[in-house]
UniProtKB/TrEMBL annotation:
Name of the protein: Uncharacterized protein
GO (cellular component) term, any one: efflux pump complex
Tagged with keyword rRNA-binding: no
InterPro entries: OMP_efflux (IPR003423), T1SS_OMP_TolC (IPR010130), TolC-like (IPR051906)
Coiled coil: 319-346
Pfam families recorded: OEP
Compartments, record wording: Cell outer membrane
Key words, A-Z: Cell outer membrane, Coiled coil, Membrane, Signal, Transmembrane, Transmembrane beta strand, Transport
Family to which the UniProt record says this protein belongs: Belongs to the outer membrane factor (OMF) (TC 1.B.17) family.
Disordered: annotated span: 251-274
Keyword Kinase found: no
Length: 443
């Protein structure tokens, strides 16, 4: 084996680039989770707004919620029809002794005069249920947006970790070249080359694993958005927003939906109680009777009163059932508030922990960078072994992974908290109140 002059060898070693130091430091340029963004969310930030709107157009739960609004509106129109005149045609064939006829046909007109609030209660109930379904649609929009953002963050996380693996692989390859040059110069044994190659093969396996996870996450995102080839931009600063100090429960869609259902149950109780009172109607009819080829008209104008006297306890049973539904609706409101409390508390705890890990990970990363540079210089001077240099590279990689994991954990916690507080769509200027109940935000 040819021996290089010692002076030429040191010049060659000093000319080698540092192992991926610039690439590793470049990843820290993404926004840290420290403060709210200075500017409001823009529609083109990482394409997230468009991805969410695409998910709105595709998700079956949103279509189901919008269809439920149509159902409740149709039932509202049905309830209002009780206030309008009712026109009916009637006819019969066969002998009737009461009218001495063989057949009859005519038209009847009826108009509700007063029913002690029965129709008013049905209308109010359906109006409340329509509002409840509208807020349920808004809550579904938030859940779908949350699902889409979490899928995007998962894909971006795996992409970032795969990039860190590639940078670490580049650093290990530089160390392998350095070990090869030292072995050829007789400064260390060939086992150093084998040891470096083993680390390289292990890092290639890690890179392949992260790439597979990235492809799986991209596939989930594609299913949600319908985009066959989603492009992931940089992590935008909106994920660094601080959580609210206090959640206004009554402004959240989940609580408002439950509250409207409670009010609808109040109307059902009043309807059931009104069934004890009579219903007054005005009826007018004109009937043509036929007997053996002769016919005559019978005109009538009547005031009808329908008052229940005894129905075997049916009315009392309906009242009790409606009161039970009202208690269940009240419990649903409390349950909605509890779920918000629990989700927000869990997200806030996760956010606090992730921010602490992010600060610690950043310090660990900077320390690992300095250690790696010192170990590299000492290895060139023969004061450190190759194993020390490889260990410093591994420490640097682990510090970067820890830092990036904490960054994305903080972003996930921020999304979960905003979803619990029902402010997630406000990040992207999606104005739900400006939309009608069954109209989705347009792309």
């Amino acid at each position: 084996m040819m021996k290089l002059p010692l002076s030429s060898l040191w010049l060659l070693l000093l000319a080698l680039p540092l192992p991926a130091a610039s690439g590793l430091l470049a990843t820290s340029a993404e926004p840290a989770f420290s403060a709210p963004p200075a500017e409001p969310m823009r529609a083109d930030d990482s394409g997230l707004r468009e991805a969410i709107l695409r998910a709105f157009a595709r998700h079956p739960r949103i279509a189901e919620a919008a269809a439920q609004i149509q159902v409740s509106r149709a039932r509202l129109d049905e309830a209002k029809s009780g206030w309008y005149p009712q026109i009916a045609l009637q006819g019969s064939a066969g002998h009737a002794d009461s009218t001495r006829s063989d057949g009859a046909g005519g038209v009847t007109l009826s108009q509700l005069l007063y029913d002690f609030g029965k129709t008013r209660g049905r209308v109010d109930e359906q109006e409340r249920l329509t509002e409840a379904n509208r807020f349920a649609l808004y809550d579904t929009l938030t859940r779908v947006a949350q699902e889409t953002l979490l899928a995007w963050l998962d894909a971006k996380r795996q992409q970032t970790l795969a990039q860190a693996s590639r940078e670490q692989l580049s650093g290990l390859e530089d160390i392998a070249r350095l070990a090869t040059l030292r072995a050829e110069a007789g400064l260390n044994s060939d086992s150093d080359k084998l040891q470096a190659q083993t680390r390289i093969d292990g890092m290639r396996a890690s890179e392949a694993q992260y790439q597979a996870l990235e492809q799986a996450a991209l596939a989930r995102l594609s299913v949600l958005t319908g985009d066959a080839n989603p492009q992931l931009g940089p992590l935008p600063p909106l994920f660094a927003r601080e959580p609210l100090k206090r959640i206004d429960y009554e402004s959240t869609s989940a609580v408002r939906s439950a509250r409207e259902k409670q009010r609808a149950s109040d109307e059902r109780v009043r309807q059931a109680q009104a069934d004890r009172w009579p219903t007054l109607k005005a009826e007018a009819g004109r009937t043509r009777y036929i007997n053996n080829g002769d016919g005559w008209w019978d005109d009538s104008v009547q005031l009808r009163v329908n008052a229940p006297l005894y129905q075997g306890g049916a009315i009392n049973a309906r009242v009790q059932a409606a009161e039970g539904e009202r208690e269940a609706a009240r419990a649903e409101v409390e349950q909605a508030q509890r779920l918000i409390d629990q989700s927000a508390a869990n997200a806030n705890a996760a956010l606090t922990g992730a921010k602490a890990r992010l600060r610690a990970g950043e310090r660990q990363y900077q320390s690992a960078v300095r250690t790696r540079e010192v170990y590299r210089n000492e290895y060139q001077l023969g004061k450190r072994s190759l194993n020390d240099l490889l260990s410093s590279e591994q420490d640097l990689f682990q510090a970067q992974i820890t830092r990036e994991e904490a960054r994305f954990d903080a972003a996930v916690a921020s999304v979960n908290y905003a979803a619990a507080a029902d402010t997630l769509l406000d990040w992207f200027d999606i104005d739900r109140s400006a939309q009608s109940g069954d109209t989705l935000p347009s792309l």
